Amino acid sequence: MEDYSVAVKLAPSSPGGYLGRGLAYVGLQKYDEAIKEYQWVLKLDPNNTEALGNMGIACMLAGRNMEAMSYFERALAAELDPQWRAHIEKWTAQLLEQADAAGGGKKGPVRGPSAGTKPLW
Question: Which one is the CATH code of 2-101: 3.40.50.1820, 1.25.40.10, 1.10.530.10, 3.30.450.20?
Fold first, then answer.
């Protein structure tokens, strides 16, 4: 972590140090801190595919699934490497499965009163 911080101090406009710190934070399970590092990279280079993919992973691990999906979609739009595309597609499928499971397999919005509540009309 210290080496990446030195790299950021020496070259604050270079994404490498921020990417490294982000990876280190993910390894330490400090996902919110990792997300901040990747935000710096994306501020410097909005189409940095490594940062977009890593941001998606950090958001997914932090339980921020909607954000993760957004970053994965952006990464897929820019990523050219077929292996990384396959990884990103796998992660998006996992997020979709989780969303489907959380919704009880239902498709579309739930209408009407929730179970256990009285209707307003």
Answer: 1.25.40.10
- d(C-alpha 70, C-alpha 52), whole Å: 9
Report residue 58 as tokens: 């950090």
Burial of residue 58 (CB within 10 Å: 0-12, 13-18, 19+) is buried
User: What's the CA angle centered on 101, arms 108 and 75, to 5 degrees?
Assistant: 80
Q: Model pTM?
A: 0.78
At 58-99, the pLDDT tens digits run 999 999 999 999 999 999 999 999 999 999 999 999 999 988
